[in-house]
Structures are given as structure tokens and as C-alpha cells.
Amino acid sequence: MTTDSLKTPPQGWHVYAADTGPPSRRVGGAQPSYVVPPYAEPSYERREPEQKAKLLKDWQFVKRARFHAADRLEKRNFWSLITLSSVALYGGLLTVFVLIFKDSLTPHVRSIFDWMSAVASWLTLTFSLTEQIKNYNGKARELHDCARRVNDLRKRLEATPIPTSQALIPFLREYDMIVSECEPNHDALDFEVARFDGREPVSGYSREQKMRRRAALKAWSKIKTIAPYILMSGAPALAGLIAYALLPLPPGALPGN
Questions:
Q1: Do residues 29 and 134 share a domain?
Q2: Fewer CB under 10 Å: which end of the chain, C or N?
């Protein structure tokens, strides 16, 4: 296309004379001027796949759930130590109390105290063995490290452009490796707390409903964590009350008889 046939080239096109045209277009002597259309870069779709947004959301929940599970297990480990110490302490104190004041106690009362001391001793033994097997402290550290690794992976995925779904495969493989290396897992309650603990809206819940649901879930999580140890701490006293209520008083146990 020459300038003779196109007096006014379209906008963006370039007009080259014979002596100033690109070297690649020159062949031999003088050539008539010609018009070259502008170079257009090929257009690529920049939109990232929806799987990336879904993974970022899911991994955010997993991170929160595992952090919550780690915190819950740390609290269980703490209350386990407190319970074992308290039960062993007043079990031993009961034995010492009976030995010191045996002349002031009736045989029936001494038997009740001896029974309570025996219950405290056996509870201390069995409870310490079962709690040691559960290894709350080690599982809490493992879950905390797993949550940190998931969080790091999530940040890298968020900062990485993902042109196609196939580019997510290395991230999925690394996530599977992180989860498989972490033996303990979070509970369903941990995941529910994670769903309602963030700023993002929850489907089917208003803001006020979400806050109430989050408070209820956290309260229930605390009850499930602490209640067994409170019951265990009161078990020897409860055993003594049951024995006192069920066993009849022997003749002459009451003063004046």
C-alpha cells in the first residue's frame, strides 16, 4: 500500500520513505513510500482461575482451625497438669489428716477418708498414664507448625500470578505434603470456630448472628476443654459423698449411742 493510494493513513500507521524505511524492507534501489500498520501485541486473558480464590479461602480456614486446635491442646495440657497435681495433693493430705487425727475420728469417718484417698491415688495413676499417651503438648506444637506452613504456602500462592489451573498443581502437592506430615488433625469444632472467627461474611448469617454464633462456639470449646478436668478434680470428694450416703452408719457411730 503506497502513499499515492492512501493519502491519509489510518491513525497509528507509520509512513516510511524509500530512503528511511526499515532495512528489512529495502531491496536494492529506491522504493516508493509505503504505509505499515502498527505492531499489536497479542492479547492474553489475565483473569486467574477461580480455583485459586477457592484455595486461598479454604487454606485460610485450615490455618485458623489448626491454630485453634493447637491452642486448645495447650490448654488441655495445662489443665491436665493442674488436675493431676491437685488430686495427688489432697489425696495425700487426706491420708496425713487421718493419721494425725485418727483418735478424734470415728471408724466410719476414717473409712470414708481412706476410701477417698484410695480413689485419689488410683485416679492420679490412671489419669497420668492416659494423659501421657495423648501427648497434648507435642500435638499442639505439631499443629502450630503445620498452621504456620499452611499460612506461608497461602501467602506465596496469593503473591504468585496463576495463568492456568495447571499452575496450581505444585501448590496442591506442597499442601498435601504439609498435611500428610502433620499426624494430628483439627476437630470439626475447630473448623467451625475458624469459619466464624474471620472478618469475611458467612453464608446464611447476618453480622449479629455471626458474632453470636462465634461466641457460642468458643464458649462450647472452652467447656469441652476444661469440664473433664473439673470433674476429675472433684471425683474423690464425690466418691466420698456417695460412700457416706450409701453405707449405713454402724451402731454406736453417732455420739451418745
A1: no
A2: C
